Amino acid sequence: METESKHSLVLISSAGLENPRPRVVLRKNSPLVEWLDLHGDILSSEQLDVIPELQSFSLKEKNNLERMGAKLYVPIKAREGRLSGILVLGGKLSEQSYSEDDMHLLTALSNQMAMAIDNARLYEEMRESEEKLRLMFEAVTDGIIVTDLNDIVTAVNERMLEMHGFGSKDEVLGKSVFEFISPHERKKAIINMQKTLAHGFVKVIEYTLLKADGSEFPGELGASVLKDTSGNPVGLIAITRDITERKRIEMALRESEKFNSSLLTNSPNPILVLNADASIR
Questions:
Q1: Any idea which fold 139-246 has?
Q2: What keywords are annotated for this sequence in UniProt (predicted)?
């Protein structure tokens, strides 16, 4: 089978060979491997000494295969046509030569093996992709809420739970996303969700959001449509952010500006305001 580095093929399993070697390795640039990759035909051990392209075959690799009793090499081609493995067979127990029917059967078997290998790799790639997506999903500093087309929550990240004061995802999944928005702003939220479905996204909008205990906090929410591989909408993904601290700073700034304005207006004494460079404003 092809190694993870894709630089060589290594024996991973054997049965019935005369002397199976636990670490037989064929380089990817080996004439045998290149010939099977190029032609995709079954090759017999006798042909190794006949086919011109195989005359430069490494003596070490050739001896290893001969000691194993290898008689037939069946290429296993991946879905894109690349060689992903070789099915190596010893001689038949009957000591007869492999027939045309045997060759057809082995070709069908190698195709099935290739399909199984492809499926296994696709599954592993999908699993790795899902794990990367999950890590990214959880690493985001904003809250993430995923819903179906009925506005029912199907997924959230840890930041969303923390922001809204929930202890576990089970407390959130299956609920309407509007349950996390203050009742007096739900109509606005429903209208904006409808706009999201119509246009594909909606700009970030401020809402009064709800915690698990019913208390309110200021937040922002933006949403986009989730689509399947055919481009059909399957749900929404909403990004939420707690803006309590920003609102506190804005309030403090307004109070400061109001105080300064009042001070300038009501002071009985002249007040001189300077810029940072000491020039008069």
A1: Beta-Lactamase (3.30.450)
A2: Kinase, Phosphoprotein, Transferase
